[in-house]
Every structure is written in C-alpha cells, then in structure tokens.
Design goal:
Elements (H helix, E strand, L loop, with lengths): L2 E2 L4 H12 L11 E2 L6 E8 L3 E8 L4 E5 L4 E10 L1 E6 L5 E4 L3 E5 L4 E5 L5 E9 L5
Antiparallel strand pairs: 1-9, 2-3, 3-4, 4-11, 5-10, 6-9, 6-11, 7-8, 7-10
C-alpha cells in the first residue's frame, strides 16, 4: 500500500545531515549505473545503523526493474524532479509527480518507470532494524 507521508521528510533528513555531517555532492554524473537497468543510476548519500539514504536518477523512458530492499523496515520514496509510474507488487500502478512523498512497507517489491520528458531525481530513505546484540 502506498501512503502519503504525514511527517515532514525534511525534518528527518535535516537531523541526519546535522548529526552525521554528510552530504552527497554532485548530480547524476556522480552516481553509479544500476546494472541491468539502462538509464537508471544511484548514489549512496548516507548509511547509518538506523537508516540509509539513496539518491536515484532515471532518464526519460528508463525503467527500474522489480526489486526490494530486504533490510528495510520502512521505506520513504520522494520524487524530487520529474514524473514516474510506480508499481508495488500486487497493487495497481500509481502516477507520482514532482514533490510527492510516499511511504512503502519495508521490503515491498516495486518498480518504476520515468514517464516524463526530463530526468527524474528520487530520494529514498530506508529504516533498518536495530542491530542484534
């Protein structure tokens, strides 16, 4: 199930950046291509024990294959630029427009396609289970 997120994601990202003093510099040219998904690239922004932040890029017409983030306990998907068709396994596709923030269950299998005419920029934040003692 896709839900709009009620808690401001900017608050979470700001706290993370202030506490960790991390910043991803550069655009799509600094990201690494996703193997098997032409026109899709990704950049690790921050990886902490509690959460991970990725910045993804998708060129017009590019599709990210069905995949999941199995270590995620929750998943916030933010479309910064562009427009996408997002499909979560077992659910109808959803049009996502610039500025939308969506909540996905941790580990949800999903795919997306850039249906727009400009590169899509996506910021994904994943919660992680606490380390086991």
């Amino acid at each position: 199930m896709v839900k709009a997120l009620a808690v401001p994601i900017t608050m979470l990202l700001t706290m993370a950046a202030v506490n960790a003093r991390a910043q991803a510099v550069g655009g799509a040219d600094s990201a690494r291509p996703v193997a098997g998904d032409p026109g899709v690239s990704t950049m690790l922004v921050m990886d902490r024990p509690e959460f991970r932040v990725l910045r993804d890029y998708a060129e017009p017409g590019a599709t990210r294959r069905m995949h999941s983030h199995d270590d995620a306990t929750w998943h916030v998907f933010t479309l910064v630029t562009g427009q996408l068709l997002l499909t979560i396994e077992g659910e109808p596709p959803v049009e996502v427009t610039q500025g939308q923030v969506l909540y996905l269950k941790g580990g949800a299998k999903h795919t997306f396609k850039n249906t727009g005419t400009v590169a899509a920029t996506i910021v994904e934040v994943f919660g992680k289970a606490p380390p086991k003692p």
